[in-house]
Queue: 4 jobs
Job 1
Amino acid sequence: MKRFVYADNAATTPVSREVIAEMTPVFESFWGNPSSLHAKGREAKAILDSARARIAKVFSCQPSEIYFTSCGSESDNWAIKGAARRLAKKGKTHIVTSAIEHPAVLNTCYALEKEGFTVSFIGVDEFGTVKMDELEAAVTDKTAIVAIMYANNEIGTIQPIEKIAEIAHAKGALMFTDAVQAVGNVDIDLSKLKVDMLALSGHKLHAPKGIGMLYIRKGVVIDNLVDGGGQESRKRAGTENLPYIVGLAKALEVAKEKLADIPELERKRDRLIEALTKLPYSKLNGHRTERLAGNVNVGFEFIEGESMLLWLDISGICCSTGSACSSASLEPSHVLLACGVPHEKAHGSVRLSISHETTDEDIDYIIETLPPIVEKLRNMIPLWEEVVKSGKV
Ligand SMILES: *Cc1c(COP(=O)(O)O)cnc(C)c1O
């Protein structure tokens, strides 16, 4: 029987009931401007302060270290541009990042190259883990900032952020991590994790699109990206999006509680990985164990990922492909290419990103539905016929 299975949670997530319930009274009643001195403003300010304190508690940091932004992309831009431009004044004009970052980081780095900064794009091994020797050799006392994502959005590989931060700090560089995919998957305790800045985004964890956050450790000073009024300690102007900020606080609290269910999510992920990698000429992309709990990314030879996506869509399964994450382009994913996956295999890669809401029945449905599609698509191409004839299946 046909089902609807949403397996594209790395692209975005539905806003949860709890988050909507928390936001609704703020839309309806607490619409004041937190900067206003009258009762309506003070009431909004109190809610803003409380949301910030709740988030600080989730991460074991100070409320004053939390800055609300409009999205993950803005947080990435602000952290890297703000640090680079500030530290350039001290002669630090070098940035270290990885080859597999999200476009919000990569394109920020390209923009800074045009401003005169030099950028080292560190390579990864076949599992998508940053090459530590290459990283260690790249960071110098000219390095302003090391920007390495906590976990990759396409292949799910989790980086050894602790060690990377040590390398950055040993040379006096700031450590920034894009944790948009990691939050809710790994426990992030900022009293222990020695990063200077960390970015996250609401819509990847069941809060709405249009709310993001940047953690900036006390004592770290970066240039502003958005100038204007005095909001966010005069560092990020714009009247606060109070309903979404409250929604983000709730989403982060829920995500932290649900860390207890991560082994269960991993179990479902592994069922899927096992079933799909049993098919001939298929291979798991990314790391087998250092991997986001909801991420499955499998490459199928002799297949176009886009055709597979369309057939899965017809069957009610939403997923994405190994083409660029801004899927308008048909270039193979820069992440898979950086892992050394050849073009033709990168083209046949499919990402299924499941969530705590995904049921075992949903997994069963994917396991029943996907293999016949693979077979059907392969049977359409002459090359596959030759493979079958030669007895290599
Ligand atoms: C989604 C995503 C972003 C961008 O977040 P937006 O809120 O959509 O701007 C940045 N980095 C990673 C790793 C992501 O997955």
Job 2
Amino acid sequence: MIKKTKSATAFKKAKTFFPGGVNSPVRAFGSVDGDPLFIAKGKGSKIQDIDGNKFIDYCCSWGPLILGHAPSAVVKAVNKACSNGLSFGAPTVQENELAELILKNNKYIDKIRFVSSGTEAVMSAIRLARGYTGKDKIIKFEGCYHGHADHLLVKAGSGLATFGTSSSAGVPEAFANETIVLPLNDIKAIEKTFSTFYNQIACIIIEPIPANNGLLLQGKEYLQYLREITQKHNALLIFDEVISGFRVGFEGAAGLYKIKPDIITYGKIIGGGMPVGAYGSSAAIMSKIAPEGNVYQAGTLSGNPVAMSAGKAQLSQCLKKGFYKSLEQKTKKLCDGVNQFAAKEKMPFKMISVGSIFWLRFSKNEIKTADDIDPKSMNSFRKLHAYLLENGLYMGPSGYEVGFVSAAHSDEDIKKTIKILKEGLKKIMN
Ligand SMILES: *Cc1c(COP(=O)(O)O)cnc(C)c1O
């Protein structure tokens, strides 16, 4: 067993400070064995905890770290920005520079607004959609996560209930009533909703690559259908690309599927590891945002020069020729290596991936909706997770979460990972 005494002590202390000992729930190891590890440092593909254990990291801070940990280009840019002051609450050229880099290389948006988290980006995008269309109701999907704003913490109602029910205490029923939650990959459900709530739907919001509840890859035709039905009903289509943006390509899922939504939200990678989110759209729709328009949205630390510099340094690397191709190939090599083994051993398991996002699917069958995931399969993940930690692989502590390959993962890392995953699967499946 690896040594975990310092982490255990730190967690005990953390529990006296924070609810559940953490500042974001999924960190708490609630669905895997043991206590969370406290991380001391990271470099490239590796992290080290405060007991000195080293791991190849596939959590990558839940997605932002596409270059791996502490990449020198980003660290240098942050240091330089810091020495000139951390925030001014007045415009800086660093905001222009990051915006220019993004907009020049993304044909799906004309204008952008920076905020400080993915939650904030999505919350603002929904307000913009409502302000622009003058309608209140929104459609979201079971199996997509859009941050923790009130009207997005809503799950499908049971039985014949038309409206969603809140998935958190503290969300007024009246808010939940404005959110309609539908299953993914179900065209009939959408048609029915548009006819029931004729002219009341402001927008459909979807993770075009749903990656917060397993990896529920949708067909391009389905996403194209969402594009067309929203246009037909004067509703907006929002792609929440907080994970997929700058991950499956510089232009994210919009670029991958060649579909132009009305608003796109970003987060995670865009800030190079610093707290940044953003939403972008056409110049016409963005003109509704204050101070140009009457949809209010603001932020004291929005676009602060340190975060902007980190984002610019990271995204500049992503623009290098072959960057995404190489990430995808590495990820494919990892998945193929494990999948060949699992198929030979006839295990109900497959690693599925898109770009450099992967998911450990404990099922033989293709899964496109949240309902199709068997909760019992999470028991297998829990066992595998413990084995991987013992053997030097760090994955996000939940079987519903995806993993990320970064540019810093070496061929050697991938080879070692395949070996450990194979051994782990063999152990837990018998
Ligand atoms: C992570 C995530 C969010 C929330 O972003 P935070 O920065 O955690 O607030 C929203 N949408 C999607 C798709 C995400 O993956």
Job 3
Amino acid sequence: MEWVDLRSDTVTRPTPAMRAAMLSADVGDDVYGEDPTVNALQRRLADDLGFEAALFVPTGTQSNLLALMSHCERGDEYLVGADAHTYKFEGGGAAVLGSIQPQPIAHDVDGTLPLDKLAAAIKPIDPHFARTRLLALENTWHGRVLPLSYLHAARDFARARGLGFHLDGARLFNAAVASGVSAREIAGLFDSVSICLSKGLGAPVGSVLVGSAALIEKARRWRKVAGGGWRQAGMLAAAGMYALDHHVARLAEDHARAASLAAQLGEIHGVKLLGHHTNMVFVDVPAERLRDLDVHLRAAEIRISIGYLPTLRLVTHLDIDDAGVARTVKAFRTFFTGG
Ligand SMILES: *Cc1c(COP(=O)(O)O)cnc(C)c1O
């Protein structure tokens, strides 16, 4: 029996067809800009999303870091969600490595950062203050798709205030597929966008930063400084390319399975459904039963993350099929109702 791993969409393993694409990739030295497959991936995402240039990097954390360091200088500040990945889950990299001060802003329940709070956080130009230079959003945020109308308003706000505008679009394609708004239309509102290939898209490694040629040139320099200059990375780029060709439209299946999982878990007495958004389901269970639930699920070869206590986040992805959803529902049901 295969494990049903609902901890994250990072856990997917490359499919046989993706591995075959990796094996046959044409490669070269990417530090010299000579890896044809990396170059093709970068060109492809830049063109698809309507940007001048793109940069392939190992992780989303590095992609966001390079973006922040390319928009901001030492002593600058960026506005960011208090619960955003960039601020909270990236080791404070912008401050540690970029000397960039974050100004966290509390999210509204829908994940948006209220414009009045953003406006109030912008510092006057005065030697007392860091220079507010950038607004960074995240979409999807905890699975939620930010409303397009909000993205337009935030873009206009950033323009009016002379701020750069960055999107942590780790799951941009989930947002696009779920909302029916193209990734290009969403991304086009921003000055730079970071996209993860190794989440729902199912590649083993890699993120891509897109932006203007000037921004990507800076990011390329910072990538080398951060130790991210890699060589025959085309084998990894081939996986990304394969993912873009074959794994975007199918994200709708992950969303449908998350909806089905949510509906069925919500009917179990003892499980409180908080909601489901794109490929994520959020449920509360009684905190004192959590350990036992985890043991019970593991016995059925199901993994969940219990790090978000008391809320459980269950994430669907390429390696979760209908049988995996059914097994999960059954295991929850036997645990809470005994049958
Ligand atoms: C996963 C993720 C990242 C990047 O994470 P890495 O593990 O460094 O690839 C960035 N932002 C969001 C919202 C993410 O979920």
Job 4
Amino acid sequence: MWPSFPSNILGLALLPLVLASPVQKRARGPWMALDTDFPDPSFVGDPNGGWYAFGTNGNGKTIQVASSPDFQKWTLLNKEALPTLGGWETNVNHWAPDVIRRNDGKYVMYYSGEAKSDPGHHCVGAAISQGTDPSGPYIPQPNPFACDLDNGGAIDPSGFLDKDGTRYVVYKVDGNSIGNGGDCNNSVAPIKPTPIMLQKVEEDGVTPVGSPVQILDRDDSDGPLVEAPNLILHQGIYFLFYSTHCYTDPKYDVRYATATSVAGPYTKTNTELFKTGQFGMTSPGGGTVSGAGDRLLLHSFCQPNVRCTYAANISIQGKTVTVL
Ligand SMILES: *[C@@H]1O[C@H](CO)[C@@H](O)[C@H](O)[C@H]1NC(C)=O
Ligand SMILES: *[C@@H]1O[C@H](CO)[C@@H](O)[C@H](O)[C@H]1NC(C)=O
């Protein structure tokens, strides 16, 4: 059911090529960070050099949190990061949290919650840390940050701090949730769009400035959807990481698009940075990259219905991202 990749056969076949190349070393690839169900991971650094990761509901928590002193070895914390909810959301389906550190030392968590007004569909919520502990607790804002329920809802938020200090949030309009059936409810025509939106926010991280703009959408090579956006800036190039296909499909992956302006246009590289069969992964996705562009967390099925979190070292040169 969960095939292991025949790395021996391929490894031997590639060996002469690897030896002949002066720069290309064979990637060591991701390592297991959290050997438990911890999907859609994101992470934030604390001022003391440690790291905190956040994951979709699981292990009895609404939002899961883990910590690491060095990004290498991770520990799941027995702590509820989001102990109270906004009035707009039900108590199920808290997905894909993302945390940023504000200039005032507090943290903002963006997450997806299910709308009471439209069960089965989701809005993006924002919550602010009570103190300056990145693990929370986080206190939700009374109203959702983004909904767009007419177009399927809003999920998979991720914060971004631009070079000039402007803050943004990217998220996905969950069009496949109002699709016509099939793979992730969106492989039967007419296929619904699943646009990735960019919303400028004030310094507080939670107050929108103007209207969101669309920066990406699915095309037929992406299957039913694009989702799980994560934006970074590296040496003048904006990198938008995202996943394509249905999360249960072996075609789920991590790709990236690049732009020279934050609002785009973004050009899809169509590079599958992580895909099934590579590095022993199964339906990898939900990738989040550090602002420095040197490390990443993502999930992959490690057992049926269990998405473990893996960490990887990456390197960016020009417009190319490489897994180390
Ligand atoms: C698929 O979308 C339709 C609306 O277009 C909705 O009624 C149905 O519940 C959705 N199915 C799933 C599995 O989400
Ligand atoms: C990742 O980078 C860290 C820090 O440079 C290093 O100690 C570690 O060995 C690397 N791990 C892999 C798998 O490349």
